[in-house]
């Protein structure tokens, strides 16, 4: 628009110069015959006027050229800024897509970790119940072993005191006191061999129960440790997800500001 105005201004100046020349020529043609001195004065005046107009037009032309150069430089600067803004916008869009993909992956990982924690919690409850049941069985076996030991001692005492009526009565009395949950001596296993086998069997069961108890306790500790590790991983994943969502909101906000 400014260049068009400048062009119109120059065109108007040229038109005024042509009009001035035409007026001078008409004046010369209408006047009576003049002397050579008058003609020289008119020619000098016309030449001076033309020189002044030419100088003025040259100045305006130089200004117009400077203005055109400045406009071209400004246009190049604006084009470069526009290109940079487009590149920045493309990078922001790509970053947003990457963050959205990462957020989806973290959400899936959080879901998987939550399911794994639930599964581990279920296993923990099952192993805890099994451990409690095993402890009850162990206590029962220990009681039976103790009863069998007391019964064995009672039988040994009965055999050693078989020649004395008084000793037999005392031993029988003690056997009756210490074997409330066992069978009476007439129906008890005959011979030390059967009793020894029973004691060995109960001892073996006791050792097996103790081993299983230690095994379950170790597994329980491992499950607890793994649950704690999974909980920490879940907390870190949730924290990372929150940071990514915040960055995504910031990028979307800057994206909207750039478009506006």
Automatic annotation (TrEMBL):
Ranges of compositional bias, category Basic and acidic residues: 15-37
* Region spans: Disordered: 1-38, 157-193
- Enumerate composition-biased segments (Polar residues): 157-166
Provide the alphabetized UniProt keywords.
Coiled coil
Q: Which InterPro entries match?
A: CDR2
Coiled-coil segments on the chain, per record: 82-151
- Family membership noted in the UniProt record: Belongs to the CDR2 family.
* PANTHER family xref list: CENTROCORTIN FAMILY MEMBER, CENTROCORTIN, ISOFORM A
Q: Spell out the protein name for this chain.
A: Uncharacterized protein
Which organism is this entry from?
Geodia barretti
């Amino acid at each position: 628009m400014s260049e068009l105005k400048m062009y119109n201004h120059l065109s108007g100046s040229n038109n005024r110069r042509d009009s001035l020349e035409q007026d001078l020529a008409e004046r010369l043609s209408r006047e009576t015959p003049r002397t050579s001195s008058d003609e020289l004065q008119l020619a000098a005046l016309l030449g001076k006027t033309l020189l002044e107009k030419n100088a003025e037009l040259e100045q305006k032309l130089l200004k117009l050229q400077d203005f055109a150069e400045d406009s071209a430089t400004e246009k190049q600067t604006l084009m470069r800024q526009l290109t940079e803004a487009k590149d920045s916008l493309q990078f922001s869009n790509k970053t947003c897509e990457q963050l959205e993909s990462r957020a989806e992956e973290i959400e899936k990982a959080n879901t998987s970790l939550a399911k794994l924690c639930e599964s581990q919690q279920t296993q923990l409850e099952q192993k805890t119940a099994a451990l409690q049941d095993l402890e009850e069985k162990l206590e029962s076996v220990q009681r039976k072993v103790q009863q069998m030991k007391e019964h064995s001692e009672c039988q040994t005492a009965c055999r050693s005191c078989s020649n004395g009526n008084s000793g037999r009565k005392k031993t029988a009395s003690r056997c009756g006191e210490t074997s409330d949950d066992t069978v009476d001596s007439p129906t008890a296993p005959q011979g030390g061999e059967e009793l020894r086998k029973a004691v060995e069997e109960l001892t073996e069961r006791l050792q097996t129960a103790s081993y299983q108890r230690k095994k379950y306790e170790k597994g329980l500790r491992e499950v607890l440790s793994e649950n704690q590790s999974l909980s920490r991983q879940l907390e870190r994943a949730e924290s990372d997800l929150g940071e990514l969502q915040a960055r995504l909101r910031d990028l979307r906000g800057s994206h909207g500001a750039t478009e506006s």
